[in-house]
Amino acid sequence: MKLLNEYGIAFALLGAVLAALVPGIASAKAVSMGGVAGAGVITEDPAQFGKVLILQLLPGTQGIYGLLIAFITLSQIGVLGGSSDISFVKGLLYFAACLPIVIVGYSSAIKQAKAAVASINVVAKRPDQFGKAMIFPAMVETYAILALLISILAVNGVSGLNI
Amino acid sequence: MALQKMKRIYIYGLKKDKDRILELLQHRGVVEIRSMLKEDGIFRRTDVTHAKESSEKNIAIVTQALEILNSYVKENKSLLSALKGRKEIPEDIYTSFGEKHESVIEIAKRIITLSKKIAEEKADLIRLQTQTEILKPWVSLDIPLDFKGTKYTAGFIGTLPGTWTLDEIYEKLAQFMPVDVEIISATKEQTCIFVLCIKDQKDKVFETLRAMDFILPSLSTEKSPAEQLNDLEKQIEDIKASINASSEELKSYDKNRDDLYFLLDYETIRTERYDAIGKLLHSKNSFIITGFIPEKDTRQIEEELTSKFDLAVEITEPKKKDDVPVLYRNNGFSEPLEGIVNSFSPPARGEIDPTMVMSLFYYVLFGLMLSDAGYGFLMAVGCAFVLYKFRNTLERPMKNTLKMYLYCGISTVFWGIMFGSYFGDIFDVVGTTFFGVENMPIIPPLWFFPVEKPMLMLTFCMAVGILHLLTGVAMKGYLAVKHKDYKSLIYDVAFWIVLLISCVLLLLSMKMIKDILGINVTLPNAVVRIAEILAIISAVGIVLTNGRESKNPFKRFLKGLYALYGISGYLSDVLSYSRLLALGLATGVIGSVINKMAAMAAGGVFGPIIFTVIVIVGHAINIGINVLGAYVHTNRLQYVEFFGKFYEGGGTLFKPFGMHTKYYKIKE
């Protein structure tokens, strides 16, 4: 067990790194999907740049949420300074705590990008309907936010456990 | 929370005054002209499509001319031009513009012609330049390229692929002697040759040459290549000069740019007037204007019209089936958010303007999501500065947007102070890195650090959410009262409010919930008992009444049951407010990440400089991302959670007959 305990930190760090990695990759892909659609609109009507940019950026937040969880985890497990004395179980718990944003962040960013692309097409045809078009991708983001919430609460909760 | 009261207006006037009356109405811009009466034997509408088309054609010409002009002479448009708004010009310029009108159109047409001419000449230029390229290898040949021979000789002028020497060519042609071969020029790609032979041998020599892949030049000239080249060069010079002259002339129209822009406005005003005329009813000597007018403007317009012209004005209440246009009436606090309501949908007939109630929450929700005093301060100060600096010239929509962000910024500062976030934790980081301060935090939060007590923050966010949702349901009640639909008030509003509040109380009395939220409230047993009873009564009430549009009792019961299931919708609505916590934390934590990164680089002589650069760039990005997030999600909470409870929209905005110009504001 003592030997195993030395690997606790490794699992915790793996969780943190995945949280930054996976939603980040998804958001990069998602934003690029929006960018491709947006560039098409701009060639036709450059005046829509502001609106299209907002829609393009919407699915970019998952990457930031992932970064957020990664950072909280890194500072909790002492990688950014402090002691990094973490038991095996605790390491696994941190890893599990990161999973919601890792998985939901990935999938929701891609799905949100699809909604964002559709909304960009709405703006291309009817720029006055921007307000409504913006809501569709925002609806998808809800689930990323819920996952983020659980990850935040779980990471914070794990740090308080005495195991 | 209100809309301007609208009235129907009828103006009966004499035809001779028509233009002046319309002009006056257009200047006032308070009447929306609509066709409300039917044509009959005497009163008819006139067809204005033809007149409108000519205006629209002019707009198209001038727009194209301006585009061309802009590609030749860059317009010096600063970033601030959006803030400066439209330029004001006195009315007499507008009225006297009619005389200039034709000449400006001519200029626009001239610009288009010039640009076409330049394009054609450029194509010519390319053609001539290709010819020059073809001729260049032949420049030392002193006979024309289409030389075919003399009386007794035959001549061949052309190219062989690759490099050939004189010997090689003679070798091939040896059997046809006497032959004279000259190499005019030779490069790696081709050898230009001139072959002269006896006429009898012409065909055989040609065949031999063909076998060597001999090609005739793609260009035939009557003059010698050198002369021809000279000619070409001269032509090229001429065309270049002509292009230059044309583009100089085009550029010289830069000084007419203002006129061109003004013409666009002038034609816009004209089309607007034609649109209005198309909606009027005319008889031989009189005409009728029909439309909507806000009640507050009725008296002034009536007085002005009757004092200046011989006419009759009639103001009546709108009819029941009228699609009355929407004009907002809000105070300075709520007015900036009218745009947000509009981008959802303006209130339909019978609905109320939700702007005022929405504004109470909008700024708070935005502030909670951004929740950083530093960011809020920058936003508020930036907006306030622009609002002050350009106070006389800002157009209304821009002003409203800036005001909205100003109020959002102030709210953000408030919540930032409550939660102790100033550019993340910049004070602590600067204090420890550069001044060795040890007792943290330097500025404690007025309330608490959300990062340290996330559950408390979550509870608070959900409480805000419940309040927001209940307000939405209460608004539905207000609407029911307004429509005197008291059944709906009790069944759809009162029952639900009672059910929701008693459910919240019951949840708070459960130990599990208290443990999760980490709050410590003990409700008296009596309160819990009452809440239980009320919850049951209201739930039963909802099941019995919410399906009341169905006659069939069984169906009615099922529909009621389904309506009660809607409570799960409330649960998800409340959970949706957890985004306040998530986005608020995101701002603060990313801010601290930036500060931490900056602090890591802060050692050494240049440390403070690197620190400053990282902090400025990092926070600039963070502020951008998070303002976007806060804006989008505040809108979402308003549109989906709040409006979902009582507001549908679908009205049309009031579009008065006026001067909706783009570049100039005409001052009377």
TrEMBL record, chain A:
Record membrane topology: Multi-pass membrane protein
Family annotation (SUPFAM superfamilies): F1F0 ATP synthase subunit C (SSF81333)
A Pfam family per the record: ATP-synt_C
Listed GO MF terms: proton transmembrane transporter activity
The keyword Nucleotide-binding belongs to this UniProt entry's keyword annotation: no
Keyword DNA-binding: no
Lineage top rank: taxon: Bacteria
InterPro entries cross-referenced by the UniProt entry: ATPase_proteolipid_c-like_dom, F/V-ATP_Csub_sf
This protein's UniProt keywords: Membrane, Transmembrane, Transmembrane helix
Places the protein is found: Membrane
GO cellular component: proton-transporting two-sector ATPase complex, proton-transporting domain
The name this protein goes by in its record: Putative secreted protein
Chief site of localization: membrane
NCBIfam families: PRK06558.1
UniProt domain V-ATPase proteolipid subunit C-like: residue ranges: 14-72, 95-153
Membrane-spanning parts: 63-80, 92-110, 130-155
